[in-house]
Amino acid sequence: MNNYKSVHKEGRDEIIINKSRFIGTACPVESEEEALEFIDRIKKEFKDATHNVYAYVIGENSNIQRFSDDGEPSGTAGIPVLNVIKQENLRNVAVVVTRYFGGVLLGAGGLVRAYTKGAKIALDSGIIVDKNLFYDVSFKIDYTLLGKMENELLKNSFTVIDKLYEEQVEFKLIVESERVEEIKALTAEITGGKAEVVLGETKHYSVKDGKIIFS
After folding, report:
1. How many CB atoms lie within 10 A of CB 127?
2. What percent of the chain stands above pLDDT 90?
């Protein structure tokens, strides 16, 4: 799966609308099984709630889309939650909006607005991010090139994860997939083509405003 948008972490927020309490919880998921486990966990946590409405979208082409009104009038709950996920162009995310009925009927339009709001605050709490594909990259250089390499990596905004000081200095980086050729060219230029750039595993990292979020 290439780059996509999702949420960085599990997030939760709540709002009171006409005495009803709406609790929105969002979670990044990698599969439908993970989505269903998350939904089941929230349902158990709020087992005394009036409704636990949910929706999720999974897959590179958003090919898995599911929702549930959980007893609310058809079209007033699950679809609005799903629509918020789709409008934000998110993938691999599940949202549950829990409702504790406060005694005041909201009507169809009011329910749609309430569940839309519940989904939005959940996603905002989970932090909407770009999930970009990175490679583990490593290479070794002579100590005489250490300062120059560090300066060039910093100047070009490459992310160094670790450095090992042995017979040579081994750099360990994570590099966005579209910048792999750039790091190869830079390393070749600095070392005169002597360093071998080794590509390792790939992983998606959260990126917000151009910066990687690790925690």
Report:
1. 16
2. 96
Token readout for 206 is: 């959260």
Residues making up the chain, counted from first to last? 215
DSSP codes, the chain: ---EEEESS-EEEEEEETTEEEEEEEEE-SSHHHHHHHHHHHHHHTTTSSEEEEEEEESTT--EEEEE-TTSPTTSSHHHHHHHHHHTTB-SEEEEEEEE--S---HHHHHHHHHHHHHHHHHHHH-EEEEEEEEEEEEEE-GGGHHHHHHHHHHTT-EEEEEEESSSEEEEEEEEGGGHHHHHHHHHHHHTT-SPPEEEEEEEEEEETTEEE--
β-sheet bridge partners, residue 6: 129
Which domains occur in the chain, in start order? 4-126 (3.30.230.30), 131-213 (3.30.70.240)
pTM of the model: 0.89
| Tens digit of each residue's pLDDT (9 = 90 or more) over 194-215 | 999 999 999 999 999 989 998 8
- Tokens representing 180 are 């792999």
Kindly give, in sequence order, each residue whose CB lies less than 8 Å from that of residue 90, ignoring residues fewer than 6 positions away: 4, 5, 6, 7, 57, 123, 128
